[in-house]
Amino acid sequence: MKYVKYVEDVLGLKNAGLKSGRDNILKYLAIKWNPQNRLKIFHVAWTNWKWSVTNMIYQTLYKEFWFKVGIFISPHLVKINERIEINWIQIWDRKLDNYFWKILEETREFNFSFFEICVLTAIMYFIDQKVDYAVFEVGLGWTYDGTNIFKNPLAIYITSISSDHTHILGKSLSSIQKNKMWIIKSWVPVYTPIWNKLMIEWTKKAWWILKTIKGKIPTNLNWSHQKRNAGLVYHSLIDFGFDSKKVLNWLQNIKIRWRVEFIEPNILLDWCHNIWWFRELKKFLKTLKYNHLITIFATTKEKNDFESFCNIIDWDIKILTKSSVYKAKDPDEFEDIISWNKIIIKNPKEALKYAKSIKKDWDLIVIYWSLFLVWDILRTLKNKK
Q1: Are 103 and 120 in contact (CB under 8 A)?
Q2: Which domain holds residue 315?
Q3: Cβ contact 376:351 at 8 Å
Q4: Which residues have CB under 8 Å from 208's CB, separation 6+?
Q5: How confident is the model at residue 255 (pLDDT cuts 50, 70, 90)?
Q6: Residue 268: which CATH number?
Q7: Choosing a second label site near 191 at 20 to 30 A (CA), which of 12, 44, 251, 275?
Q8: Does one domain contain both 145 and 194?
Q9: Using one digit for the tens of pLDDT, what is the confidence trace for 169-223?
Q10: What are the residues whose beta carbons fall under 8 Å from the beta carbon of 179, sequence distance 6 or more?
Q11: For 91-105, 132-146, 239-253, which range has the lowest pLDDT when averaged over its residues?
């Protein structure tokens, strides 16, 4: 079904910018008698691995325990519906438009952002559908994030800390930590693999229940950090009384798209979008056997956000392209900071076609950095088949 008027109106807010505060959204929710506090929330925050942990909780509660579970994630690739889902079914077009209509009509004076309206829609939809649990992934994962509106979530997950969104959160790691710290609530258990001086200090003065989980749990997903993510989910759900054997069973059968995923025997996809993640990708690639590495790369980030990353690329052949999303950067903008063996092919379909044409036996094609590029490539392969 083609999107109707109000979905198009909300999509038009996508370039409206980030709102610097929660006052508006909390004021509106207070008028509605704070419906967000009626949901049983698992809140997944901070820099890397949010998507993985969010999906682990969601899939385990639904697939293994058969609860009615809502999930809110971002970004979407094709349709906004991807952000809001219950038990594997995305919100229908007509329902999405109706919720947008109600929220827009009630909130014109609040000047909400695109992300805030999506958060409000998810809350209203999950309440109307009477979900047993809801799992919310933060946007930037900071104090003023649009999802930081739940007074008493069941649990909060701090998955990692690294430098990302520095133009908003600050240049140093400590400033990023401080910006993100108040996503945590007093007396709500916080599950994290991290234990550092700043978090210790804040734990004492803010009455946090910090649960540092160092143990790893076996999972079928690639990369060692996924075992750590599985450990966070396993120990938290056990604390809430879920059967340990069932939790472990699903974590060993989890399915998460675009995370070190081989879409063909010699084509690997991964949505690594910062330096820390990129280094993990490099570690994984060292465990594989191949002769030459051909990479296809695109970005939506500003040049200064990934300049240091470009200086440590050592792939054999680098194909620079441009994803189809509106905020994609032209490869001409960053071509000068990427070292030798680079080729610019601005059409992702043609970039993949060229990579396949030069690939020899035992060569590996890796498509990475931009989730939107990953989608462009998947769409190309699907149309071909």
Answers
A1: yes
A2: 261-384
A3: no
A4: 184, 186, 188, 190, 202
A5: confident
A6: 3.90.190.20
A7: 275
A8: yes
A9: 445 555 566 666 778 888 899 898 887 777 777 777 677 788 889 888 988 887 7
A10: 142, 143, 168, 169, 170
A11: 132-146
Tokens standing for residue 43: 């809140």
Looking at residue 325, its amino acid is V
* Pair (191, 172) in one structural domain: yes
- Which amino acid is it at 383? N
Domain count, the chain: 2
What does residue 11 show for φ and ψ, rounded to 5 degrees?
Answer: -60, -30
Q: Tell me which of 251, 285, 308 is where a domain ends.
A: 251
Whether residues 267 and 246 fall in one domain? no
29-38, 144-153, 256-265, range with the lowest pLDDT: 256-265
Q: What is the CATH number of the domain that holds 179?
A: 3.40.1190.10
Residue 98 forms part of a structural domain: yes
Which residues, 6+ apart, have CB-to-CB distance to 130 below 8 Å? Answer: 68
Cα–Cα nearest to 157, from 180, 184, 134: 184
pLDDT, residue 61, reads: 97
Residue 247's φ and ψ, nearest 5 degrees, are -60, -45
